[in-house]
Specification:
Layout lengths: L10 H11 L1 H22 L3 H9 L4 H7 L24 H14 L11 H16 L6 E5 L5 H9 L4 E6 L2 H14 L3 E5 L12 E7 L7 H14 E12 L4 H4 L3 H8 L5 H5 L3 H7 L6 E6 L2 E7 L3
Parallel strand pairs: 1-2, 1-4, 2-3, 4-5
Antiparallel strand pairs: 5-7, 6-7
Helix pairs in contact: 1-11, 2-5, 3-5, 4-8, 5-8, 6-7
Bound molecules: S-adenosylmethionine (SAM).
């Protein structure tokens, strides 16, 4: 078990839970948190409003039609509120705000990095990938690629590779498609679930997953490990970058702050209690390496066994 945060509700947590249970108060709290985040962005030099308004002014229908699979049925667990967006990941607002939100949220990881924190986080992961995977992968799948931030970072590290980005939100994929056109990047975007991708057996050397697992129920995490095992060629690698439940930051986090965090991340308890090492081994991988790559994140790398 990797559980590290004290989750027993104390008075402050019960108070936070009580406030969050009353819809108008919860909405007010969300509104305040959002205002604070946007102000923080401006202080950091991230022009939140300006960048989002520019994206909002576009007509997205062409990109949406190009990437969307209209037959896809969304699993129940995905239809929850995430990150204080009522539509969760299924809306334009989260899609158009993801880039500025990532730069703002990750600015706090290293005190001296400021708005470069997001780029530094991605680089810290890629440094571990290149150090631990000796042979550069030729076919890479970026599972849960969002608007493509993790996909373009992989392409910069492995410019020779053929890269596929897969996500369950067509809105995120539409933004990814637009950014790919802007960068003249050739990426294959796939609209599917990570647990049932529809992609061919043994078609990748590396499956990379950046900031997905904390958004999943444990049962789905297990299904995804099995799916990744199916997708990887012999000798292929699985690489995961996500929150590190064993980091001092989460160990020392006051329970009421963790409760607030859980109000924006509905499956955080399940992620924090997932034994990721055993789950990976059970799915047919060798024992993974687990390396801390930021004060609060870890990189998990495992090779297909046999
Ligand atoms: C925090 S974002 C990370 C996006 C991206 N990897 C990045 O580095 O910016 C998590 C992503 O996981 C996607 N996601 C969540 N559950 C999924 C699932 N079952 N299958 C595919 N994508 C999923 C969401 O739509 C969202 O784009």
């Amino acid at each position: 078990m990797t559980a590290a945060v004290k989750t027993s509700p104390n008075l402050a947590s019960r108070l936070v839970n009580g406030i969050l249970a009353i819809k108008p108060l919860a909405n007010l709290a969300k509104h305040q948190a959002r205002q604070m985040m946007m102000k923080r962005a401006e202080r950091l030099g991230v022009h939140w409003m300006q960048e989002v308004e520019k994206l909002q002014a576009r007509d997205w229908q062409r990109e949406l039609t190009q990437v969307q699979n209209p037959q896809l049925a969304y699993p129940e667990y995905y239809l929850r509120t995430f990150h204080a967006y009522d539509a969760g990941n299924l809306g334009w607002k989260p899609a158009l705000e993801l880039e500025v939100a990532a730069r703002t949220v990750h600015a706090g990881i290293w005190p001296d990095a400021g708005a470069q924190g997001d780029a530094k986080l991605r680089q810290s992961y890629h440094d571990i990938l290149t150090a631990q995977i000796p042979q550069p992968p030729q076919d890479i799948l970026d599972l849960a690629c969002g608007v493509g931030l993790s996909t373009f970072a992989l392409q910069a590290t492995y410019p020779q590779a053929k890269i596929t980005g897969l996500d369950l939100s067509p809105y995120f994929l539409a933004v990814a498609q637009y950014r790919a056109q802007q960068h003249q990047a050739k990426i294959n975007w796939v609209h599917a679930t990570a647990e049932s991708t529809g992609l061919a057996d043994a078609s990748f050397d590396l499956v990379s997953i950046f900031l997905l697992f904390h958004e999943l129920p444990q049962s789905v995490a297990h299904q995804i490990f099995a799916e990744i095992r199916r997708l990887l060629r012999p000798g292929g690698h699985l690489a995961i970058m996500d929150m590190n439940p064993k980091s001092e930051i989460y160990k020392k986090m006051p329970p009421y702050i963790f409760t607030l965090l859980k109000s924006t991340e509905p499956y955080l308890d399940e992620y924090f209690t997932l034994d990721i090492e055993q789950a990976i081994i059970k799915a047919g991988f060798q024992t993974p390496t687990i390396t801390s790559n930021s004060p609060r994140h870890r990189t998990v790398i495992a090779q297909v066994s046999g």
